Amino acid sequence: MTDLTDLGIREIRDGVRDGTFSAREVAESFNAAVSNARQLNAFLVETPDHALAAADAADAVRAAGETLKPLAGVPIGMKDLFCTKGVTSTAASHILEGFTPQYESAVSQRLWDAGAGMLGKLNMDQFAMGSSNETSAFGNVISPWRRNDGGNAPLAPGGSSGGSSAAVSARLCPGATGTDTGGSIRQPAAFTGISGIKPTYGRCSRWGTIAFASSLDQAGPMARDVRDCAIMLEAMSGFDPKDATSLDVPVPQWEQGLNASLAGKRVGIPREYRVDNMPEEIEALWQRGIEWVKDAGAEVVEVSLPHTKYALPAYYIIAPAEASSNLARYDGVRYGQRDLPEGANLQAMYAATRAAGFGEEVKRRILIGTYVLSAGFYDAYFTQASKVRTLIARDFENAWESCDVLLTPTAPSAAFGLGEKSDDPLAMYLNDVFTVPSSLAGLPAMSVPGGLDKHGLPLGLQFIGKALDEQGVLNAALAIEERAGFTARPQAWW
Amino acid sequence: MSVDTATVKKVASLARIAIDDAHAERLVPELNNILGWIEQLGEVDTSGVAPMTAVIPNTLRLRDDVVNADPLTGGGIRDAVLANAPQAEHGFFTVPKVIE
């Protein structure tokens, strides 16, 4: 019998439905995989009972001959940014250590309503601030991948959804939730050879998701292939009156709509994404991607997004500004940790609590955010960045006049080693150069594996689509998936 | 624009994050490196450009003016609200004395 942990979401769903195996067998297999992989530090909390309960419910429905829910029998991993009722949710920060939500986030609730079970809460960069999972207060996630040079240097699984990417690629779960503020689904997906999609801003409710930068934060699925992402995204999406920015539009049947033919489609290649010092292998992969979409029937056109180089600096004003405001709530009064030095007054308690509770990168961003919003600097920084954001969105609008979807690399390099970039915040920020512009414009974007670099590490290709055209993005990614023949997976050493 | 130790301490105090002198001094070059890099936004001509306020066009909704229209966001859940407080007494959040 095949190892059930080798199966993806669709295979599990169909196998449970057809009685090939029981949902309980699936849950038990993944629970065992999770508890055998603690070296990866991908999970902050393991919830085997949650997975088993959902599995037993699925098996009971099937035994009764009733219709199974869309994700019945599928156990998933939940990024620790989502509040889960009765299960600690920390955003990988000390300041929320011990926080046990009394409510369920809208996205996780939708997944449970669809029949999914939870294997556990996944490690991440603290408050989703990072690109390597090295800012977690609970230790680095170790990528299951290793370079083929014989050295065993531990590699970054990407970030901020690094627990999600590591867990999916190591076959600890068939799919996981991620969140993407500036690339936090796509870059870790690329680093670990899996697929991940950030939908249009507003598709997934932000209610109950711990906020980082509210105008950018968007949840999405990370899974082994494009179809599995489509299945999971359908379950996660939908209007929620509790989120003022939730879009009141129908959720398309993305899985049913999958079509790998790009006949009649125009794929844009933005010339500004050819950045300085881009490794040859990334450029070569991009060229292969271009050949693949042509082979799928698409017409390839060169387009210009002239404000691309300003996207990162604009992002590093807007996101920290929003973060400094959002994270004001961690005050040691309502939830989380409190640090009360002897004789301290209220203000001193706030300052001591936040100094002890936040990690270095979180503090850095709160300080930058506070600075760019402070009197005298607001216009020069925040207002200017918001205007540049308008121009970046306009660049995309103009591009859609000549193409339907854009093809770019996902990240400027393959996975780097843990510790290689953590001393230089700016070098780390530059990792998001290809993912941030579409985040600023709220557009759907997806990373799909394209190949391996010379060290045997995965590289990803990204598609960026028009607002609400997740289908176009998924279809283009499927065309690449069918041609790339990406079957590499990390060899279990853990 | 660049920051000095005094500015870093001022900003940290606005952000309610306690930092000592050594920490502030360490942050000065780090923050200046980042601020120097984001300074390049100044070269973009944004005259006549409106700042973005909504990334995807959306209309704000009004809900029915009903108490507890959605029980998830309604009232009457004091114990749940206080359940995670570091310190709560008599149905209230408790903080150090603020009035002598």
TrEMBL record, chain A:
Q: What Pfam families does this protein's entry cite?
A: Amidase
Instruction: Read off the InterPro entries from this record.
Output: Amidase, Amidase_CS, Amidase_dom, AS_sf, GatA
Domain Amidase stretches: 30-474
Q: Which GO terms describe its molecular function?
A: ATP binding; glutaminyl-tRNA synthase (glutamine-hydrolyzing) activity; transferase activity
Per its UniProt entry, what is the enzyme's top EC class, as one word?
ligase
The UniProt record lists the EC number as: 6.3.5.7
Q: Which reaction does it catalyse?
A: L-glutamyl-tRNA(Gln) + L-glutamine + ATP + H2O = L-glutaminyl-tRNA(Gln) + L-glutamate + ADP + phosphate + H(+)
Ranges annotated as biased composition (Low complexity) = 150-168
Q: What is this protein called?
A: Glutamyl-tRNA(Gln) amidotransferase subunit A
The record's GO CC annotations read:
glutamyl-tRNA(Gln) amidotransferase complex
- Signal peptide region: none
Q: Which UniProt keywords are present, listed alphabetically? A: ATP-binding, Ligase, Nucleotide-binding, Protein biosynthesis, Transferase
Q: Which residues form the active site?
A: 79 (charge relay system), 160 (charge relay system), 184 (acyl-ester intermediate)
Top-level taxon of the source organism: Bacteria
Spell out the subunit comment: Heterotrimer of A, B and C subunits.
Would the keyword Ligase be found if you checked this record's keyword annotation?
yes
Q: Give the SUPFAM superfamilies listed for this entry.
A: Amidase signature (AS) enzymes
The entry's family comment says: Belongs to the amidase family. GatA subfamily.
Listed under GO biological process in this entry are: translation
Region entry Disordered: which residue ranges?
A: 149-168
- Lineage, opening ranks: Bacteria, Pseudomonadati, Pseudomonadota, Alphaproteobacteria, Sphingomonadales
The UniProt function text for this chain reads: Allows the formation of correctly charged Gln-tRNA(Gln) through the transamidation of misacylated Glu-tRNA(Gln) in organisms which lack glutaminyl-tRNA synthetase. The reaction takes place in the presence of glutamine and ATP through an activated gamma-phospho-Glu-tRNA(Gln).
From TrEMBL, chain B:
**Domain of life according to the entry:** Bacteria
Q: What is its EC number?
A: 6.3.5.-
Keywords for this entry? ATP-binding, Ligase, Nucleotide-binding, Protein biosynthesis, Transferase
Q: Which InterPro entries match?
A: Asp/Glu-ADT_sf_sub_c (IPR036113), GatC (IPR003837)
Which Pfam family would be a valid example here? GatC
What chemistry does it catalyse, as a reaction equation? Answer: L-aspartyl-tRNA(Asn) + L-glutamine + ATP + H2O = L-asparaginyl-tRNA(Asn) + L-glutamate + ADP + phosphate + 2 H(+); L-glutamyl-tRNA(Gln) + L-glutamine + ATP + H2O = L-glutaminyl-tRNA(Gln) + L-glutamate + ADP + phosphate + H(+)
- Tell whether Nucleus is among the UniProt keywords: no
Q: Under which main EC class is this enzyme filed?
A: ligase
Its BP terms in the Gene Ontology are:
glutaminyl-tRNAGln biosynthesis via transamidation; regulation of translational fidelity; translation
Q: Which SUPFAM superfamilies match?
A: Glu-tRNAGln amidotransferase C subunit
One GO MF term on file is: transferase activity
The free-text function statement in the UniProt record for this protein reads: Allows the formation of correctly charged Asn-tRNA(Asn) or Gln-tRNA(Gln) through the transamidation of misacylated Asp-tRNA(Asn) or Glu-tRNA(Gln) in organisms which lack either or both of asparaginyl-tRNA or glutaminyl-tRNA synthetases. The reaction takes place in the presence of glutamine and ATP through an activated phospho-Asp-tRNA(Asn) or phospho-Glu-tRNA(Gln).
* UniProt record similarity statement: Belongs to the GatC family.
On assembly, the entry states: Heterotrimer of A, B and C subunits.
Q: What is this protein's record name?
A: Aspartyl/glutamyl-tRNA(Asn/Gln) amidotransferase subunit C
Organism field: Sphingomonas dokdonensis
